[in-house]
Amino acid sequence: MYFKFTFCPIILLLWASLSFAQNVNVVIHGAASIAKTDDNFVCVTLDWWPAEKCDYNQCPWGKAGILNLDLRYGALINAIKAFNPLRIKVGGSLQDNVVYKVGEVSSCPNFMKKEDGLFGFSQGCLSMERWDQLNRFLNHTGVKLTFGLNALFGRNESQTEKGLWIGDWKPQNTRDFMQYTISKGYKVDSYEFGNQLSGSGMGAKVDAKQYGKDVIVLKNLVKELYAHPETQPKVLGPGGFYEEKWLNTFLEVSGQGIVDGLTHHIYNLGPGDDPNMMNKILDPSYLNQVSQTYKGVSDVVNKFRPQLGAWVSESGGALNGGSKDVSRTFVDGFW
């Protein structure tokens, strides 16, 4: 295979320091690569949040959520096409609170504010009519799709430990959803199992051993329904924040060959209401702290060797819709 390397050093010297200039020899060993980046490394998320999602005295989502988004909006379609190739992940915080209206599921409720609900909302629903619309949009724009599955379906919240969900995952609703998807000829590149359920979790969590057993069930389901290996979607997980002990336990239980890609999330700027947000973004030493997370994930990957390595399947700098008057500005690019 032939690779073309272009090395473009740019050196800016102040006129006052020219007298101190020295000749330097730079040697580049281009015979071997130290890392490989997938062609579809650019990824954007279509999230489930309804317009009522508000944080820090702002309600930024408007009609941008999956169920409300105008899929015929020309500027959006053209922007996605311009990224070609692009991966779109359909998922996010509320994905573990979404049922699919297919098979035995007959009612299809909308997300409603609910004080004791997951992230403050009641259960929501994806109708197959909306799924059809989404796939027409995805096919038209030519993207690769990663779909985030509900990994809490059939579980119950523990009565003794807040936020812990217990019991086996029930795959029937996912089975019906996949069968419908296959019958329509819709292409799914990968399924991600749950959202931020690993470790301490965000809103909800699942024990590592339980998650490991359930992801085996998912992998077997994918193998059963997608008979041809060349068209078989990949299985990704856990789609949460890095916690070494939890990840090691999960991968020891699931074993090799189950999870194709190890996914994790990066929000290294913390909550969006931090008054010190601007200083964090402009402080290289602070930003470099995240390298410890990458090293930890890399160590886990080297130990268990999932086929596709590690993916950052969600990243946004600041948590909870970003930081008002910062995340949407030029300075946010530095993180």
Tell me about this structure:
This protein has helices at 74-82, 128-141, 172-183, 208-225, 244-254, 277-281, 284-287, 291-304, and strands at 43-46, 87-90, 98-101, 113-118, 124-127, 144-149, 156-157, 164-166, 190-193, 205-206, 234-240, 261-266, 270-271, 310-315, 318-319. The chain is globular and about 75 Å long. The protein is 26% helix and 19% strand. The chain is an alpha/beta fold. It is built from eight helices and 15 strands. The strands form four sheets. Strands 1-2-6-9-11-12-14 form a seven-stranded parallel beta sheet. A hairpin with a 6-residue loop joins strand 7 and strand 8. Helix 4 crosses helix 5 (244-254) and helix 5 packs parallel to helix 8.
Distance between the termini: 34 Å
Question: Could you give a short account of the major beta sheet?
Answer: 7 strands, parallel
Q: Can you list the strand order of the major beta sheet?
A: 1-2-6-9-11-12-14
Mean pLDDT over all positions: 90
What's the total number of strands? 15
